[in-house]
Amino acid sequence: MLICICFGLTITANSLWIIRHISVSHLPSALTNSVVHLKNDGIVVSVILELLTLGIALLIGRVRGWSLRTFGLRPSWKWMGAGCLLFAAFLVIQRVIGLLTRTVLHSPVDFHRVSNLTIPFIILISIVNPVFEEALESGYFFHALQRHGMWLTVFAAALFRGFLHATMGLSGFITMFAMGLLYGFVYWRWRQLWPLIVAHSLQMFYSLVPQALAA
């Protein structure tokens, strides 16, 4: 329930902010060809909301004796290297899923992100968002469901991650679901958030920087 509230607040607020930056000409085809414009001011709003909701979640989590350290936020060179390997694995999975959805499912990429961000704001969101998402989607989620066993916990967390990114279309949903499975099994095995955060940060930076440079 807490996770749904946290993500519900941030998704609703971010969506309202994003709508302000969607051209009216794109609205009729929004269901099949969504165009989301990212701008620096929108990133600031997103970061503030994520930090606030994460803070609230951690305060409530203290009742159960949970914290970021409990979830496994222990930075080290070892886990940073593991995060880089996890990022490389994600890139391979992303390419394979993209190929399959285009050739087998004949599903085009139906999510387009037009970025007007500058590098400092890309770095900011690439740091804050992964901490926010992995602390809740992995740390909080797994600690809440782990009594049900690995398979149910990992599958439920991956499905939740996929639905959170449903606006990215079919290929995006499948990619995020696969990412959830990959991250989930890694987290279940080692219970370390740092590799997930590093991989997630690299993923965001990798996807946003080329768009910013091309703008």
Question: In summary, what is this structure?
Answer:
This protein is mostly helical and 215 residues long. 73% of the residues lie in helices and 5% in strands.
Notes on the protein architecture:
This protein is globular. The model is unreliable at 15-33 (pLDDT under 50). Helix 4 packs antiparallel against helix 7. The termini are far apart. Helices cover 73% and strands 5% of the residues. It is built from 8 helices and 2 strands. The protein has a two-stranded parallel ribbon. It has one domain (2-26, 38-214). It has helices at residues 2-19, 40-61, 68-71, 77-103, 119-145, 150-164, 169-190, 193-214; strands spanning 34-38, 111-115. The protein has 215 residues and is mainly alpha-helical.
